[in-house]
Specification:
Largest sheet of chain A: 6 strands, mixed
Radius of gyration of chain A: 30 Å
Shape of chain A: elongated
Number of helices of chain A: 9
Largest interface: A-B, 134 and 135 residues
Strand content of chain A: 25-35%
Structural class of chain A: alpha/beta
Helix content of chain A: 10-25%
Distance between the termini of chain A: 55 Å
Strand order of the largest sheet of chain A: 8-5-7-6-10-9
Oligomer: homodimer
């Protein structure tokens, strides 16, 4: 079977997934979502020329001779309207954001002034017209498109939304995601410890990777290697927008996932990807027409409800899913190996989920770093090495988190990022420049990292 | 008044704030939290030597002559225990993760084998002992400390927690944060549009900045420039761990925040920081003994409940706060200017909140970039320029988001990061290397950014 390149596999996925429909959310719930509508300014801001400083509104021409002594004729707070006109050698005390009085054309900040009496101020600096005045409409003009559909809602964007009084807005809805682990060897969280079994970590690592994208997944539990049980779980899972199945998709004779899922109407675009850790990886699409009927799904849900370990922090979201989503369902068959499953999620599932949420930024941010030590490599597959990042004057230094066995999840737990070794590489020396994908949890660092 | 350096102001804050007490959370709610306990392995993993591949468990010595034809004596699935011993020129079909049978010492993956009948396989490769075998305890050994207190809970860490069956764990609790805007000029979200007023964006931008750290803040609303009203709001706000007050802390004569807050028992460590945008910025501490009494606080809450725009997505968290927190309260007086307020939050409030949550990584991650255009600068204050990042073969390119007026919030909404211009800098040329702090919402990019 041909090994696809990572970019080829990503292209196959992106040809299938599209942004989901829009929904209305409140400003308080909008962080991290993506706008599905343009946002217009609803007024000029500032609504008039305003002071940029706490100080005195003056006529700049009065300051030509220094020091100038000016009469204070009024006191203008932010939120007040000025009542007087500033004439020659007069000024008004003014607060940041307060409207400029007629006659005045500049502001002198209070630090540059000397109040010599309650109604007299001495100013020794001279400024040009408009100094420290923010002109009407500098921020935005009524009717301007201030934010376009497709914008990710960051805190800065929320500030702008509040500025135009957008209490609610259309955003692309989040995909509903279900997670299923498979395998007789797995021990569920609530099971007693059995030394002959392997605790199911994939359900939770995947849960967290999905949560990190702002989505609360539903965890279906563990399906044993039994075609009937597997079918029951898969039927339930296909009722969601995205179903993540870990384990059971390799070439072993006991893997029932692939045939069962195809039987349920999923068109599988199986592949092996030339990456390490990674394959086997499977991707399939169930088009709407072929989707399990609502009745079937609800029946399936009832049948498994007592067995499945359903976890849903947003009950209403779960119930909505039970009512059947209107778009295609996508299935990712992920490796059973914990690290491989997480890396495949990062490279394929996260970009797909981000795309479904309407975000043009689908991939993890990358930084360049120097290798702290040599790395051996057998060319042929792109390798992802779990690394920690440290920083010195020359920038980032990347060091392996230790054993890179794909069974050792601690190497992932300790990682700041994934160092990407290109497939044709035959190894790298200490000090060579490399690319590192930042992982979740690394948007902060222990040092400011800049020079004041 | 002396202008502190940014690092000096940060030091003052870090001398006051400490990590909060611990609380128990479930694995499902633990993402982004920080462990307040060490986590021990509860068994050896893998519990025995297991196969790293789907294939055949063999005696490596049998493969010395190629091809070797071996009898398949058993079929071992993951979760099964082998029942037979592999003797000379025998092998067992084995799945990834399944226990190695006695006698076998290596695994040949199925792709490198040829099944010539139902119970005979031909193998043409030769391998060393232990090939594709994961030894017992490779992942972790019973009793090992696998995660230490102070570890941020990322998806990889959650995988490890699930592996040791940690269904709940101690984490540092999140600070309870209240947000207050001040100023007569402000128009609340629910008020009708008044062209003479300025919509209150700071409440929401700060809300989102707090949310981005995983904390649901309580928004107290807008206090008018009236000492009695301000006192009522501040009393309420001081019942939280952290109170963010925007506006009203500058040197203008109408600023009542400082005297009122001191009257309420807060020891203010005011400063001006040598940064742009930024000052004025205030920081104060109310020690526990001086804290407003519970009765006072509840009374205050009742008085303002009808006026304050209380927003709390976690009702229970809010109620807990009403019962009064056990630690010191911290007050940040932030500039009224929207961009200044957000930048001060990033440089001072976010690190403090991260520290309170027990996270050693307090500061935003930085990347190096080249300037896309020259930047003028008047030395004396560290400047933060809002920039967008693009990427070419030589790395990141930083371009200004446009007007850098601190009133223009759109420049922040469009920014990927804050370019930090050191205070002694007199300007920079296009192409010069600069440091950029990544902002929230930039942990993803539009391109993979690596070479396969």
């Amino acid at each position: 079977m041909k090994h696809l390149k990572i970019s080829e596999a990503q292209r196959v996925i992106f040809e299938s997934v599209a942004q989901l429909d829009a929904e209305q959310v409140s400003l308080e719930q909008s962080l991290g979502r993506v706008l599905a509508q343009d946002i217009l300014a609803n007024r000029d801001l500032p609504p008039y020329d305003v002071s940029a400083m706490d100080g005195f509104a003056v006529r700049s021409c009065d300051l030509a001779t220094s020091p100038a002594t000016l009469e204070i004729i009024e006191d203008i707070k932010a939120g007040d309207m000025p009542s007087m006109t500033v004439a020659a050698f007069q000024c008004a005390r003014i607060m940041t954001g307060a409207p400029m009085p007629t006659g005045a054309d500049a502001v002198i900040r209070v630090e540059d002034t000397l109040e010599i009496s309650a109604n007299t101020v001495q100013i020794s600096v001279s400024v040009k017209s408009c100094h420290d005045v923010r002109p009407k409409g500098e921020n935005m003009r009524d009717g301007d498109v201030v934010l376009t559909a497709g914008t990710e809602i960051t805190p800065g964007v929320i500030g702008v939304l509040a500025t135009v009084k957008a209490a609610t807005m259309q955003v692309y809805r989040r995909p509903r995601v279900a997670i299923l682990s498979t395998g007789n060897e797995l021990e569920a969280m609530n099971d007693p410890v059995d030394p002959n079994k392997i605790p199911d970590s994939n359900t939770y690592a995947l849960m967290a990777q999905v949560q990190a994208l702002g989505i609360n997944p539903v965890m279906l539990g563990i399906a044993r290697d039994d075609p009937a049980e597997l079918e029951q779980y898969l039927r339930l899972g296909l009722n969601y927008d995205v179903l993540l199945v870990s384990g059971g998709t390799s070439v072993g004779v006991h893997d029932y996932v692939r045939p069962t899922i195809e039987k349920l109407g999923v068109s599988m675009k199986f592949w092996r990807v030339a990456m390490k850790p990674g394959h086997p990886l499977a991707f399939g699409v169930m088009h709407r027409a072929a989707k399990v009927s609502e009745a079937d799904a609800v029946q399936g849900a009832k049948r498994t409800a007592t067995k499945a370990y359903l976890e849903d922090r947003q009950g209403s979201e779960h119930r909505a899913t039970q009512q059947c989503a209107a778009s295609d369902a996508f299935v990712f068959g992920l490796p059973g190996n914990p690290v491989s499953s997480m890396v495949c999620f990062e490279e394929f599932v996260a970009p797909a989920l981000r795309r479904m949420m309407g975000n043009p930024r689908a991939y993890r941010r990358t930084v360049t770093a120097r290798l702290a030590h040599p790395v051996k490599m057998r060319p042929g597959r792109t390798e992802f090495i779990r690394v920690q990042l440290s920083c010195d004057d020359a920038g980032y230094l990347a060091s392996s988190t230790g054993t890179q066995s794909s069974g050792v999840l601690l190497s992932m737990a300790r990682a700041d990022g994934l160092l990407v070794m290109p497939s044709e590489c035959t190894g790298m020396k200490a000090g060579e420049q490399v690319t590192v994908q930042l992982l979740d949890g690394t948007s902060f660092q222990e040092y400011t990292g800049f020079k004041e």
